[in-house]
Amino acid sequence: MEEKKVIRKKIFAIRQDISDQWVQDISIELSKHLIDLPVFQHAKKVMIYADYHHEVKTDYIIRAAWEAGKQVAVPKVVGKEMVFHLLTDFKQLKPGYFGIPEPVSGEAVCWDEALMIMPGVAFDRKNHRIGYGGGFYDRYLEKHPGLDTVALAFDFQIKDQVPCEITDICPQIIVTETETLFRRED
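Structure tokens predicted for 5-formyltetrahydrofolate cyclo-ligase:
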């Protein structure tokens, strides 16, 4: 099995080579699949990342959540933790941790019941996730086990198998442009 560093390097190389237009077009297609899911439809609160460097774009999802009357929060890195802030306008976002868009204003929220939409570098068909190596989502989800979790990924981010550690928390659902993967027990 490939190590996490090797997989990250391969995925980052692919992400660097895809066009902005491709990312935009596929992100919209993928977002429509997510928005149609009951877990999104029934959520009153949505915790979602602000996309960066050819991740699945999230602006379409955020707008759909606002239009449906949902509250939306995005993360800000504070030390080794993430703090989610209420997002009511994209103007609240400015480059923060490693240049990732973060809220510079907005009420800090700590929801125990919400839908968390998370990024990742690579996934497998058992919903194991390789993140960026900081452990932010794993630590947050360990403290908030009641959250529903969905990860967004392009098809090229789905591998046959990725390494998984005991501290890794798998998303319940992964949505790509062509499929929706529901977590199966190992």
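Residues 4-71+113-182 form a domain with the Rossmann fold fold (CATH 3.40.50.10420).
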